[in-house]
Design goal:
By secondary structure, the chain is mostly helical. It has one domain. The protein is built from six helices and no strands. Helix 2 runs antiparallel to helix 6. The chain is elongated, with a radius of gyration of 16 Å.
Length: 129
């Protein structure tokens, strides 16, 4: 599973939603609604693909946003619906962390990367791109 780029999501909003907006003063609100829906969809897709408990993934992301500390291997494994064997834990934890952690796929000093992570969607909620 790969997430679409921020550019692709923004272009999709412009192409599909912007023509339907009659009042230009509501564009920012409409974009916020669109982005929240895409965030929810990305979380659902990740949770389904990796058999994760979505509430735990959201908690991991919110903790990262608040503390700046990414979840430990144990915290990531705890988010799984079914616990893996001891031999599989590390590889599964790494794979899931790479899908969540922004430092793996974007410049942590800013949004310069094209391909994003789940956290990109959350960051854009709080910061303008």
């Amino acid at each position: 599973m790969t997430l679409r780029s921020k550019r692709e999501l923004i272009e999709q909003f412009i192409e599909n939603n912007l023509p339907k907006i009659s009042n230009s003063e509501t564009i920012e609100d409409e974009f916020k609604i669109y982005w929240e829906a895409e965030t929810k969809k990305a979380l659902q897709d990740l949770s389904k693909a990796e058999t994760l408990r979505q509430d735990k993934v959201e908690s991991i992301i919110n903790d990262f946003l608040f503390t700046g500390r990414m979840a430990t291997e144990d915290e990531v494994i705890e988010a799984l619906e079914k616990q893996p064997s001891v031999l599989q834990r590390e590889s599964i934890s790494i794979r899931i962390t790479e899908k969540i952690n922004p430092c793996k796929s974007i410049d942590c000093k800013g949004f310069r990367g094209e391909r994003g992570t789940i956290l990109d969607l959350y960051f854009i909620k709080f910061y303008r791109v």
